[in-house]
Amino acid sequence: MSAPAIKIRITVNGTVHVTDASPTMRLLDFLRNELGLTGAKEGCGGGECGACTVLVDGAPICSCLMVLGSAAERQVTTVEGLGDGAGGLDPVQQAFVEEGAVQCGYCTPGLVMSARALVDSDKELTDEVVRTALAGNICRCTGYKKVVDAVRKVGAAAPDAQATSDHSKEQP
Amino acid sequence: MSGVGGRSIRPDAAAKVQGKQPYVGDIHPPGMLHAAILASDQAPARILRLDVAAARQVEGVLAVVTAADLGDKNRIGIIFDDQPLLVETEIRMVGERLALVVAETPAACQAGLEAVALETEPLPGVYDAEHALDADAPQVHPDGNLIRTFSVDRGDLSSALDTAEVVIEETYRIGGQEHAYLEPQGCLAVPAPTGGMWLYSSTQCPFYVRSAVAKVLDLPLAEVRVLQTPTGGGFGGKEDYPNEIAACAALLAQRTRRPVRLLLPRELDFQASTKRHSMTVHHKLYADSSGCILGVDAEVIVDAGAYVGMSTVVSERANTSLVGPYAVDNVRIRTQVVRTNNLFGGPFRGFGAPQVTVVHECQMDRLARQVGLPPLQVRRLNALTPDRPLWSTGETIAQTERLGAVLDALADSEVMTDSEVMTDSEVMTDSGVTADVHGPAASPAASLVEDDERYRQGTGISVFIYGANLHHGGQPLDRGGALVQVQADGSVSVAIGVTEMGQGALTAARAIAATALGADEERIRITEVDTDMVADSGPTVASRATLVGGRAICDAADQLQARLLPLAAELLDAPDPDALVVVEGGFESPDTKRRVAFEEVAALLHARRENPAAVGWYRSKPRDYDAETGQGQAYMFYSFGAHATRVRVDTWTGKLEVLSITAIHDVGRVIHATAIEGQVEGGAVQAMGWACMENLSLQEGKLMNPSFADYLIPTAVDAPTVNMVFLEDPEPLGPFGARGIGEPSFIPGAAAIANAVAAALGRPVTTIPLIPERILNMLGKE
Ligand code: FES
Ligand code: FES
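^ thats the input. predicted complex w/ FE2/S2 (inorganic) cluster below
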């Protein structure tokens, strides 16, 4: 049974929400049912498929495993929070579209979020690095090749973006 | 280039990367209720008491339904009438539905489930398909455990037996597989304002869902409307099983007069939904000492689980496909479909063919070794050719030079150039058999690249034939439609009866529509199936989406061109409308080379108030086939293809790693380059999962590993490189010459891996999946 509601403050896609909710509610349910952000998908509910991946303070996590209480006072980014806010795609999303990395699409929002976190890191996007970073996101359709190509393409195309994020890391 | 052969962006890509695509779990109409299933955790068993009175009192619960509430509307079987929607008295499989709960919230549903009082008495079960037909086996149903036997009888096997110099006899045990579509099964049922029922269903077969719901609710078909939701993977797993989910949701919606959504939890989806069939194949291959096959004698046992479902049709394809792409004059096959209390067997990409492809291709390698020929050569020696085109069905296979082209491409592939060497090695001989070593001189261990003592590499090939359309038995279903409407601004609306489940059906259909009409591909709108828009188009299975959707669109386009071309000719001042050429985005006069844009012609069509819509239709031609003997034209046309695969085996841990796959497919025509690559890459990796890691671990019918933590499927780290070769010899019956690729992409995968492992270890492979403990077993390191 869920714990009684308390006041929780959480930032989602840049908007601060103060809400009365059970701290044991799954972050995934909060996002999907309370905020109507249905981009994150439930594929297993057990932290095994990655379809529910969102970023919490920039790090990819399975939102089916994190409870709302643990996300309190933190910055959550969902797939809806990517892009320019006017319908324009984030470079990661754009690369997925162009490379044909999308089939049924159910894994896609989760993969996009894991990829976004990877691209934001200072890692060199070798085939191995990309594959390892995406190993928590199951895709049953694509065989991963085009997904990996898409992520590497973003890395190759955006040296500036990477430099910027490296820079920001050095200045906490 | 756009249209056929292009690489346009798929129509749903942007919505999917933004998380905007509304899967059934994302749709939440006002007043929606949640449903849940009380499922059995043992089988077989008899229900002694199923008391839902307390569950009905739980706060937030609106209804609890059991078989007792359904009367004679409790049947769900699609071919046989052996399956109840809700268990009546006898539970026959784990995961079977005992009761349905509908409530205001998921939590209330859960509380309702927990409040049901259930007492059962266990019964003796059948858990070994190979013993299901024993005289003392418990009976899963009163009419016995043998559902049906399929046969192939061709030529005279005794003559093969008399003259054979080589006999290769082996029993293969091929495991099942979970589809693991990433979106679990789900359906939202909404009572229609006028009394019918609307179903938002994650399905490959909306027309199956419509029939199932009409039957359970006792409604006319016209009152049931199925709107396919974007479907998060199917692979055969959303062929017939969605009927069950939809029927449950519809029943509850009918009772409560409110929208009801039923989403299957992953664990129950694992346990209860259909699986690739496990099969046991006892195979005897008769050949002469030169490697020519004289006869095949095989017994197949297919584990259907407790209910027939689609098992008979799947088995019929396995039965027909068992000989492989070879010309064999004497064949006797018996395929028995049996009931057990194991997992529910059903359709899965390849529909019974991948299992038997493992068998015929492992046998071919064994034959090669025994007669001392390279594997490719023994296949060439026996392959169907224009001079020798009679298949095991007795039918003449058309254009068999395509198979020759596949074998040539195989010989050219990089992986193969090395592996031809290996095949002459003595290391490869079967235990107890000494091979004559012919061919180019090779060191005994040339087959293996030994990294060191611990790791061994090997290469394997496999070749297949596949009827990429419905079997003769499914011909009553083999038709389909398309509704094409040209709008006044030159945009085009297309509705088709075959489904998108990720594979790219809409992308292919849109490309075909663009090229057939001369319309701008970007301005063609095409979406998931709505059964009110298009007539029953049968199931989206058997790699038939491109064929059926494409041919129906072409038919509609022909009708529209009869109206568009005269108008285009008028605008171009061209004398002969029929001489105009449909080009990208419009029409061209062959004489003047002048062009008119599709938009202009569409505008004129509307200005003249001509009919801007057409219904296209496709149906296959009747053909002759005798199901008793398995002789006749089983399929309308056939695809060929091959894999060459390199693996590395860790002999210490038993871990099997697939290093690379070369996939060669005879596709007729590439309709959409990105989509076809996606199918082949995805199919090859899915087959790799089946061959290497996907192990359905059963204990008395209960799946012991119903999660992605314990049932491992390939991740990005496991997936090998897939090199692709597409051979384009147009198919006369396909749209723009295309044949379907969805299932062919999967079929040769496991067989090539099995042969590669056999090559690496110098031991025959007789089972799938090759999980580490089995590899260690092969190495004598249990
Ligand atoms: S739904 Fe969270 S990992 Fe699968
Ligand atoms: S695109 Fe279907 S699971 Fe990845």
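Residues A 103-108, 139-142; B 182, 233, 502 surround FE2/S2 (inorganic) cluster (ligand 2) (CB under 6 Å).
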